[in-house]
Amino acid sequence: QGNQQWGGRYSGGPSAIMEAINASIGFDRKMWRQDIRGSLAHAAMLRHVGIISADDEAAIKEGLTAIGAEIEAGEFPFSEALEDIHMNIEARLTERIGEAGKRLHTARSRNDQVALDVRLWVRDAIDGLDKQLADLMQALVERADEHAATVMPGFTHLQPAQPTTLGHHLLAYVEMLGRDRSRLGDCRARMNQSPLGAAALCGSGFPIDRHMTAQALGFDGPMRNSLDAVASRDFAMEFLAALSICATHLSRFAEEVVLWTNPYFGFVKLSDAYTTGSSIMPQKRNPDAAELVRAKVGRVAGALVGLMTVMKGLPLAYGKDMQEDKEGIFDAAETMALALAATAGMVRDMKPDAARLREAAGAGFSTATDLADWLVRELRLPFRDAHHVTGHLVAKAEARGVDLSELTLEEMQAEEPRIHNGVFQVLSVEASVASRTSYGGTAPVNVRRMAAEWRERLA
Ligand code: ARG
Question: Among 183, 185, 268, 285, which residue is least crowded by beta carbons within 10 Å?
Answer without folding.
Answer: 185
